[in-house]
Design brief:
The complex is a heterodimer of chains A (108) and B (409). In chain A, 16% of the residues lie in helices and 19% in strands. By secondary structure, chain A is α+β, with helices and mostly antiparallel strands. Chain A has a single domain (4-102), classed as Roll (Ubiquitin-like (UB roll)). Chain A has a 3-stranded mixed β-sheet with strand order 2-1-5, with helices on one face. Chain B is α/β, with parallel strands linked by helices and 409 residues long. Chain B has helices at residues 11-22, 48-51, 64-69, 129-135, 152-163, 184-196, 243-247, 292-306, 370-382, 390-394, 400-408; strands at residues 4-7, 29-32, 72-75, 80-84, 89-92, 97-99, 102-105, 109-111, 123-124, 144-148, 167-171, 200-202, 207-213, 216-221, 226-229, 231-234, 238-240, 252-253, 255-257, 269-271, 276-279, 286-287, 318-323, 326-332, 339-345, 350-357, 360-367. In chain B, the strands form 7 sheets. A 5-stranded parallel β-sheet of chain B has the order 3-2-1-7-20. In chain B, strands 9-16-10-11-12 form a 5-stranded parallel β-sheet. A 5-stranded antiparallel β-sheet of chain B has the order 23-24-27-26-25. The longest helix of chain B has 15 residues, at 292-306. Classes of the chains: A alpha+beta (108), B alpha/beta (409). At the A-B interface, α1 and α3 of A face α3, α8, β23 and α9 of B.
């Protein structure tokens, strides 16, 4: 099964893609040309350029933020919220089929 | 309009093209790469890709269609042979001539080799996807890997091989591993980590000779010891690719010399990434850096200038390495002679080593202390690092973050 994921830009435009299960929401965005996700460090928690806001209904299904992700979000250019995550840490599984991610104004 | 020509399709070159289009640059972009494959990320090649937990499709900077859709003329499998600065043209190895308004040299670096051993079966170095593919089959139980050079690459490969139950020996000429890039305290931590995981680490040791012996190799050391190996990985540093620049008389030091806007001595030519010898606003010195951060941030700086938004390059360098599940995060750069101030709890594997040069905080190396790492980036970026004392950073009960805030007041 290919979990699908929807990215919503700050202006409200939606992009939905079929992702390969097991890839991260950052990788899926970059490899499908979704503007608004940068992913400079390749998913190594060294930058905060794949920042997303996760709606509550999906947030509760994600594993908790790790310590490094938590600190790295301090580096995010757009405001950090309780629902902020780094999308490189969101591994797309069948459980997350249909997940919606809101993109911030800026990543760099 | 002749547009922008980028020589080198590594991360720096690729990122220049991406950033130019993001900045709505409308002219032609030509991206010239020696390798056959489209641009990809190199860090995984010594980590997850090598371990087999990541596929080749995962390392590509962008999908192949991206370059077409964004009107980037991607020329892989071809090298730039000559630059005519007066005529503003680049000649490719096959004789084709490409005009430029602006030329970006992102030629990268080449691995140093052991002269007579290069190309010997069983002797590898690691820079490309092909290199990683060739090396990977040797990382298996029972395989005997000798790693020459205890730098980032050597130790990352050693860890990947050990995790796959190969027998591993690391040979380092200096008295400690990663001596060029980290503090003595951090070298000791990682050497002990490797030894605890069963890697044999021989410092102050050099390779005298490499001998083929059927399907195996013999590695002769300068202390007369002889190691058997099924595979040898050479990771003894790099040299910047400056020949193209040298032949057209650009200024060369340990890399292509650029100013604080990353321009070479020719106003129509920039140099970025591993090959660029630039004045670092953070360290106050002129040097090259080999890192993802340096490649991407320098690419964006040049792309901004070429789209009428010139700013000097002032980014804080950061690096990381991952070995046996431990991530070392480094902010800033410090020479090996820098003074170390320890911060944290070594026994819990949670600590930072703060590096001072002439009394000024220049770099912070952190293991399992991401808060220190992030605060260090801010301290270095804001210039607040200049006012931080050794006593302040040594106090583990004072978060580095509070020093950032204090300095801002």
């Amino acid at each position: 099964m290919m979990p699908f994921v929807t990215y919503i830009s700050p202006e409200g435009s939606e992009t939905t893609i079929d992702a390969q299960a097991g890839t991260s929401a950052m990788q899926a965005a970059v490899m499908n040309g979704v503007d608004g996700i940068v992913g400079d460090c390749g998913g190594n928690l060294m930058c905060a350029t794949c920042h997303v806001y996760v709606p509550d209904v999906w947030l509760s299904r994600l594993s908790d933020r790790g310590e490094i992700e938590d600190e790295m979000l301090e580096e995010a250019v757009s405001p950090r919220e309780d629902c902020s995550r780094l999308s490189c840490q969101i591994v797309l599984t069948d459980d997350l089929n249909g997940i919606v991610l809101h993109l911030p104004e800026e990543q760099i | 309009m002749a547009g922008v020509v980028i020589v080198g399709a590594g991360l720096a070159g690729a990122q220049t093209a991406i950033a130019l289009r993001q900045n709505n640059f409308a002219g032609p972009i030509t991206l010239i790469g020696q390798e056959q494959v489209p641009p990809y990320q190199r860090p995984p090649l010594s980590k997850n890709y090598l371990k087999g937990t990541m596929e080749a499709s995962g390392v590509h900077v962008r999908p192949e269609l991206f370059w077409l859709e964004n009107d980037v003329e991607l020329r892989t499998g071809t090298a730039a042979a000559e630059i005519d600065r007066d005529g503003q043209v680049v000649t490719l190895a096959d004789g084709e001539v490409i005009e430029y308004d602006h030329l970006v040299l992102a030629t990268g670096a080449s691995n140093r080799v052991i002269p007579h051993a290069a190309g010997m079966p069983g002797v590898f170095d690691l820079r490309t996807l092909d290199d990683a593919d060739a090396l990977r089959p040797y990382l298996e139980p029972g395989s005997e890997l000798v790693v020459v050079g205890g730098g980032f690459i050597g130790l990352e490969v050693a860890a990947a091989a050990r995790e796959r139950e190969a027998r591993v020996t690391v040979i380092e000429a200096l008295d400690r591993v990663m001596a060029r890039v980290v503090s003595p305290e951090m070298s000791t931590f990682f050497q002990r980590l490797h030894e605890a995981q069963g890697v044999r680490v021989l410092t102050k040791t050099q390779v005298q000779d490499l001998l083929e012996n059927g399907r195996r190799m013999h590695v002769l050391l300068n202390d007369t010891r002889k190691l058997a190996a099924s595979c040898v990985l050479v990771g003894i540093g790099v040299v910047p690719n400056v020949e193209l620049a040298r032949r057209c008389d650009l200024e060369i030091e340990d890399g292509i010399v650029v100013n604080d806007h990353l321009l070479t001595s020719d106003p129509n030519i920039s140099a970025i990434g591993d090959c660029a010898f630039y004045p670092c606003a953070i360290s106050g010195r002129q040097h090259r850096l080999e890192s993802i951060q340096n490649a991407t941030d320098q690419a964006r700086c040049v792309a901004a200038r070429l789209t009428d938004n010139p700013e000097p390059y002032v980014a804080v360098p950061w690096f990381w390495t991952e070995q046996f599940g431990r991530t070392l995060q480094i902010a800033g750069v410090a020479p090996s002679s820098a003074e170390s101030v320890f911060r944290g709890r070594a026994a819990e594997e949670r600590f930072s080593v703060c590096r001072f040069v002439d009394g000024r905080l220049s770099a912070v190396e952190s293991v399992n202390q991401p808060a220190d790492h992030i605060a260090a980036r801010k301290l270095l970026a804001s210039g607040a690092a200049d006012r931080i004392t050794r006593e302040q950073v040594a106090d583990v009960d004072t978060p580095l973050k509070s020093l950032v805030l204090a300095a801002q007041r």
